[in-house]
Each structure stands twice: as structure tokens, then as C-alpha cells.
Design a protein that fits this description.
This protein is mostly helical. 66% of the residues lie in helices and 0% in strands. The chain has 9 helices and no strands. The chain is elongated. Mean pLDDT is 78; it is low at 150-159.
């Protein structure tokens, strides 16, 4: 009863606490690693219970991160535990990456920290971290927010916090990310995608 209530109220700290209570009840530490299971535990299906609690705690942590960043998401779409739903769950998590990076970049001024956070998000749900790098480059090479549509105070804050308004810092961040990619082919592919995106938005060529 407590878990559905916490989920419906999007109280992810409580969800995390309930998952850790489950781990404690099963005789495991609250900070639990799946690799720690070496043999079947006490009661029947206890191992599965521990794994479910661990997965729930991990999801609750990232739900809290997404919520704090202001990313819109549906917790029920994170179901990557069942084989039948695994593909859909993974695709949903991939679809959150652009908003994840955009929202994180609005509150975290250090691009390296944003990248590390995005890669950890991918790792937590078995998504290739290179997708975080690609989406981060795509964000950095996208058009900055049109501040003319914002209120004066919001406009000032957005201009200061958006790295895309600082071309020197933005270029340096992109170079660092490109250096982490495995080869020139991968670099060319992502840069071409960004260029095409610019062509679609900047039809008069002003920004070029």
C-alpha cells in the first residue's frame, strides 16, 4: 500500500526508502550491489526479492534526479526488468537523454559534470554511454534558447547559464566530447547530423 501511494504522489525519496527497507529486511546492506549475491539467500525467492528492491532503489534515485532537473517522465515506462518490456523501456530511457542533458546544462555550468551525469544515467539502465556523448554534442551545437520570448529576469539567467551563448566555452566542450568518440567516422556522423539540424532551423543562413 505504501509503495503505490508514494509512486502516485511522485515521492521518490520515500520509494527509495521503502526499497532500502526491503533490502534490510532481506539481510542485505542498504547500499547493495547485485554482484554481492554469491549463493541463494534464506527464504524461497529471496534472491529475486533483493534484486527487485535493488532495481527499485536505483530507479527511485534517478527518478529523483530527473524530477529535480525538471525533466518530464513517466516512471511506469522505466520497466526494463521484464524481457518483453525491456526493449520499450530502453528506448524510452534513450528518448529522455536530450531533455536530460538540456535541463542538466541549465543548472550545471560544468559540461564535464553534465556529461558524467548523463553517462551514469545511461549506465544505470544499460544504455550505451556513447549515446549520451552524441546527444550532448547535439545539444551544444544546437541553437540557444530564444531569449526574446522570456521575461527580462529569466532572459538574463538563461543567457548566463546557457553554455551555447559562450562560443569559446561551447567549442572547447565539443572538442573534449569529440575526443572521447572512438574514430573519425563517428565524429563525422554526429557533426553531420548537427549540421542538418541547423539547415532545417536556420533557413536564411543567418547563424552560419
Amino acid at each position: 500500500r505504501c509503495l503505490p501511494s508514494a509512486l502516485s504522489r511522485r515521492d521518490f525519496d520515500r520509494v527509495n526508502a521503502l526499497a532500502n527497507v526491503g533490502l534490510r529486511a532481506a539481510g542485505m546492506p542498504s547500499l547493495f550491489s547485485v554482484e554481492n549475491i554469491q549463493k541463494p539467500l534464506g527464504w524461497k525467492n529471496q534472491t529475486n526479492f533483493v534484486l527487485q528492491c535493488n532495481a527499485l532503489a536505483q530507479k527511485a534515485f534517478w527518478w529523483g534526479v530527473l524530477q529535480s532537473l525538471g525533466v518530464r517522465f513517466d516512471p511506469s515506462s522505466f520497466d526494463v526488468d521484464q524481457e518483453a518490456a525491456k526493449q520499450n523501456g530502453t528506448e524510452y530511457i534513450k528518448s529522455l537523454l536530450p531533455d536530460f542533458i538540456r535541463c542538466a546544462s541549465e543548472v550545471i555550468l560544468d559540461g564535464t559534470t553534465v556529461q558524467l551525469l548523463a553517462c551514469n544515467f545511461c549506465k544505470a539502465f544499460n544504455v550505451e554511454s556513447k549515446l549520451a556523448t552524441q546527444d550532448h554534442i547535439a545539444f551544444l551545437l544546437s541553437m540557444p534558447t530564444d531569449i526574446s520570448t522570456l521575461q527580462p529576469v529569466d532572459s538574463l539567467v538563461r543567457t548566463i547559464s546557457d553554455i551555447r551563448n559562450d562560443l569559446v566555452s561551447c567549442a572547447a566542450a565539443v572538442r573534449l566530447l569529440l575526443d572521447t568518440m572512438p574514430n573519425n567516422v563517428c565524429r563525422s556522423v554526429i557533426l553531420r547530423k548537427c549540421l542538418v539540424s541547423f539547415e532545417e532551423i536556420d533557413s536564411n543562413g543567418k547563424e552560419f
